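hey m, so remember when u said the tokens were messed up on ur end? i reran from scratch. heres the input so u can diff it against urs
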Amino acid sequence: MQCTKRRQKFLIEQVELVLGHPSVLLTIKEFSRITGHNEYDLRKACARDEIRHHQSHKGATYRIHFTELDPYFPQEAAS
């Protein structure tokens, strides 16, 4: 799913608000802190490819692009 520039700006602001700094690639722990979802459930969603992610090799840390936060924030929140 493509995010508009305005939506991307909103999402990166949410990342900065929670983490204290902007970050394009998030770990499961960071993604969990931002969304309030359980780390285990997020890890399973990545394993099932429900959340797009990057993993350099099996067993490596999942890295999730900040735009994957989009479904976790209602659209009207960005207004």
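this time it looks ok to me. The chain has three helices and two strands. if urs says something different then somethings off w ur setup not the seq
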